[in-house]
Specification:
Order of helices and strands: EEHEEEEEEEEEEHEE
Structural class: mainly beta
Number of helices: 2
CATH architecture of the largest domain: Beta Barrel
Shape: elongated
Number of domains: 2
Low-confidence stretches: 1-12, 159-169
CATH topology of the largest domain: conserved putative lor/sdh protein from methanococcus maripaludis s2 fold
Mean pLDDT: 76
Radius of gyration: 21 Å
Distance between the termini: 46 Å
Length: 176
């Protein structure tokens, strides 16, 4: 019996965040994992739809998967990981980034036991790291553990500007 492709083209099957669309194109390799069985299938992007969803900030792409037994069903839950060319980026551990109504920020180790918030703009989060597109420079140290305690303490004392605490784990921001 010849292979019959299963097309996954419904919006709920392969949504891609608009900020991530820039990193993929037709032919980009992808690994699809069937959520229920753990089976992995290698494929490539077949088509990227030209229309995006501005309400959900998502685009849509299509993959063609060989489905000789017909066990893959349209709408079945899948995990898709794309392989794109890596670029060097300034990144911090994703747990070092805190989010508030004002945006994203990290807690910088200012030295001498002092800490201060630094507003940042984030990019891609992958493999436990979050890209920092602005707000930090390579070599700055940020708190990577317990920063939520610093944040809560500073809010109780009346503001982030009064931070002066010691003994928190810090890690230097780095490109990856």
């Amino acid at each position: 019996m010849p292979a019959q492709p299963a097309w996954f083209h419904r919006l709920d099957a392969l949504d891609i965040l608009l900020k991530d669309l820039q990193f993929i194109s037709v032919g980009t390799p992808a690994t699809v994992t069937v959520a229920q069985t753990g089976e992995k299938i290698d494929t490539v992007i077949d088509y990227i739809h030209p229309v995006t969803d501005p309400d959900n900030l998502e685009g849509m792409a299509r993959l063609v998967l060989d489905n000789p037994t017909g066990k893959l069903k349209t709408g079945a839950p899948l995990d898709v990981v794309f392989t794109s060319k890596a670029q060097s980026r300034l990144a911090v551990p994703e747990e070092a980034v805190l989010y508030s109504g004002m945006g994203a920020y990290t807690i910088e180790d200012a030295g001498g036991g002092a800490y201060r918030p630094v507003m940042v703009k984030t990019g891609i989060t992958s493999d436990g790291l979050t890209e920092i597109t602005s707000g930090l420079s390579e070599g700055q140290f940020v708190v990577t553990s317990g920063q939520f305690m610093l944040d809560a303490e500073s809010n109780l004392r009346g503001g982030m500007a009064n931070m002066n605490m010691k003994d928190m784990d810090t890690e230097q921001s780095h490109g990856k």
